Amino acid sequence: MIVIDSIEALREHTADRRCVLATPEDRELTDEASKVLDLKLHGTHHPGPRRPMAAVVDDQISLVLQVLDEDRAHHALQLHARERGLLVIGEKKALDSIAGKIPADAGDTWTVLVELILIVARRCEEALDEIDDRCQELEAQSVGYASSPRRRTMGRLRAELFRIGETQAAQQRLLSNEEELAQSLGEDHQRLLARASAAFGANQSMTTRLYAMLGDILNEQDSVVSERLTLVATIFLPLTLATGFFGMNFQWMLDRLGSLPAFIVFGLVIPGLLTVATLVFIRRLTRSS
């Protein structure tokens, strides 16, 4: 199958099956390809659906997938296929994600269609491998206390993983054997479609694992922060008690605690000993539990 991205190449290769790559802004190429390949398009010249979807009308299959670019941003990829060929419509970043990976030796349109679905799944797998490496780094750097920017990074990664996982689950459902997409293809293509469905399922499972791992790290960080705040409050507890007691203006206190030695003993030594005793008690209590 010939991969085409210009109207000149489309007019040149008239005897071959063609896979046309076009952006929504390239209306001339889109209109020409739809006429040549006998495709019926709806809503192509405005932003496409944001959710994965599939439709089978007569012998035309229309499919919308979400592909990840190099920055792990989702882009809609519209696939319209008939026996004559395939029209792929998407933003430039979406087309760059699949360019060069389309098999040129495929014998029919439906094989290329399923291969494109596999390419979308593998692109997400590559992005998840990068996120996995980043999560491992964050986990190693978060032993003990992690800084606020690092915790915010983990929070953003969790939100990104949730979004990716939801998209992968939706795309896996489109490829189910009970859906019209699988039922409109032959047995050989259904086996390839099952591989793509398994790839989307594996991606969704990986996002769930990484999402849970980052959640555990953030929970541990919350525990560390709580422990440190408790420790600070514990340190100031005996100091606050001593300050409150010796700050009371009893006449007995005014008569007997006016010298420098009394200030050192009752104002410094005793509060310091109380603080040390409190810390030792807390440490032993923590170890025993």
From TrEMBL:
InterPro entries named in the record: CorA_TM1_TM2, MgTranspt_CorA/ZnTranspt_ZntB
Localisation: Cell membrane
The keyword Membrane appears for this protein: yes
Cited SUPFAM superfamilies: Magnesium transport protein CorA, transmembrane region
Top-level taxon of origin: Bacteria
Alphabetically ordered keywords of this record: Membrane, Transmembrane, Transmembrane helix
Parts of the chain that traverse the membrane: 229-248, 260-282
Recorded topology in the membrane: Multi-pass membrane protein
Broad class of where this protein is predominantly found: membrane
Gene3D superfamilies hit by this protein: Magnesium transport protein CorA, transmembrane region
PANTHER family to which the protein is assigned, alphabetical: CORA FAMILY METAL ION TRANSPORTER (EUROFUNG), ZINC TRANSPORT PROTEIN ZNTB
Record protein name field: Magnesium transporter CorA
